[in-house]
Amino acid sequence: MKIQLRPYQQDFIDAVRNEFLKGNKRVVGVAPCGAGKTIMTGWMIREALNRGKRSIFFVHRKELIAQTAKTFLDLGIPFGIINSGAKMLLDRPVQIASVQTLAKRVVNKDGKPNKNVIDALNPNFLICDECHHILANTYKKVLDAFPKSYLLGVTATPLRMGGITLADSFDSLVESLSVNELIKLGNLTKFQYFAPESDIDLSHVKSIGGDYNNHELETLMVDKSIIGGIVENYRELADGKAAICYCVNVKHSIEVAKAFSEAGINAAHCDGETNPRVRDKLVNDFRNGNIQVLCNAELFGEGFDVPHCQAVILARPTQSLTLFIQQAMRPLRPDPDDPDKVAVIIDHVQNYVRHGLPNDDREWSLLPNIKKKTKCPECGQMIFPIEKVVRGDDGKKSTRKFCPKCNCMFAKGEALGLGGRQAENKDGDLVEVKVSYDTQRADDKPAIKKRPTTIEDLLLVAKQKRYKSSWAAIRALEFVKSYDDCLHIARVCGYKDGWAYYKWQDIQAEINASRTLQDARLVC
Question: Looking at the predicted structure, is the pLDDT value of residue 102 above 90?
Fold first, then answer.
């Protein structure tokens, strides 16, 4: 199979290469699901291989190893595999690795670096797939083992749970086309979006690690009437379509799959503990059309490529924008056997109210996502909306946004920047949400974003991560060019001028020591 790059893919590769040439050794590349991230990174690896360079492409799930291997074979790239149970061929200049296995191989049992493996691999180029996981300790072990390597991380959503950005791990950010631009190019399909009019009351559900508590969600979502509604709405809105249903946890997924089966719909449950052979068979049965609805708990998200998938059912509320986008966009892959495909997204839990639609234009950055003020439609003042639990005419409770100044209640979606998105009534409890495919991007060239370097921006990062201001001050010192820069940092952080004086003296001493070492090397 001969692969040709599309113009936007070549632009993306050129932009990443330019960032490396500028001295930014760690770059995050942001591209939506369906942009061809594996093809673009594979192309870069092949170019590096032709120049005699070594590369490691590492992923966080074994299913992604097989998908990556297929793309690399199509590109004509020979490779070794680093994974549990696979024979290591460390002499090969390109490796596809499980990050968990790689992290174990580069460290000995005593916790010290495994020099034999590290020296044998010796990569010039590291590619981290789904790099929004890169802050985890497993990834840190890999990066610590190869500190001199160039790093490219790729993801559709450069955020961690709770909206934490990747500023600690990357120097700059390269952003490819938007979802709407990919839809216009035919790389993704159009879609219909359905959601309930009335809110699910989540006011009593606690948050853990930036998302809702799974156990408390399970208690809410295993209600038979809610599960029954999931089956009924599938029949009404996506009957016969191949659908993936994202559930709260294993117990919830089993109950939903059982309800579908009892209704005469071929359905199955699958999770991370399912026997690998059984799981592979279930996925193949889904791909072949023998299973209509595949229920799971966070299993079939990142990198799960099934063009045959026509619909998704969102049955798990989430505060994570990353998780929402990964799940909602699963059915948007074009299907060669169905050129007129229009995907269906059934959002039973109103995740779109929290996050917008999957094709909304988003401003990605290495800076923290600071809560923005919204203009009140009633009094016109710029305010931070507050949440209150209210009881509707039907007696059901829901959480709504209010203006703290005039106490007016916002229309759904209005306070979240959704522009008061309207919904059209359909028969039943769900409504169709209007979808716009317009984009706000000024052009189709990759957008470049830099890591925070000023004390003001670094203090925002520190606040987001709950670090002390001293962390921001020390990081800001890496970018100072004069004593005045040090003085500015001191005054912003509330330090005495003497702090700036001594820090500038330390910086001058380091510069002089570096020059002395360089002179010595020239003499030698």
Answer: yes
Does residue 247 have a pLDDT over 70?
Answer: yes
Show me where the domains of the chain are located. 7-179, 191-368+422-433, 454-515
Comparing 7-179 with 191-368+422-433, is the CATH topology the same? yes
Region of 23 on the Ramachandran plot (φ > 0 left; ψ -120 to 50 alpha; else beta) = left
pLDDT tops 80 at residue 299: no
Place of tokens 């992923």: 59
DSSP state letters, 388-452: EEEE-TTS-EEEEEE-TTT-PBPPTTTTTTS-S--EEE-SSSEEEEP-------S-SSPEEEEPP
What is the Cα–Cα distance from 305 to 39, expressed in whole angstroms? 13
Please check the confidence at residue 339 and state whether its pLDDT lies above 50.
yes
Classify 164 in phi/psi space as left (phi over 0), alpha (psi -120 to 50) or beta: beta
With tokens 């799981």, the residue in question is: 279
Q: Whole-angstrom Cα distance, residue 360 to residue 416?
A: 12
Question: Quick check: helix, strand or coil at residue 458?
Answer: helix
CATH of domain 7-179: 3.40.50.300
Q: Pick from 329, 299, 287: which is nearest to 35 by CA? A: 329
Share of the chain above pLDDT 90, in %: 50
Residue 284 to residue 43: CA distance in whole angstroms: 28
Class of domain 191-368+422-433: alpha beta
Rounded to an integer, the average pLDDT of 234-251 is 94
Residue entry with tokens 């779109």: 352
Q: In sequence order, what DSSP letters do the residues of 216-258 get, joined into one string? A: HHHHHHT-HHHHHHHHHHHHHHHTT--EEEE-SSHHHHHHHHH
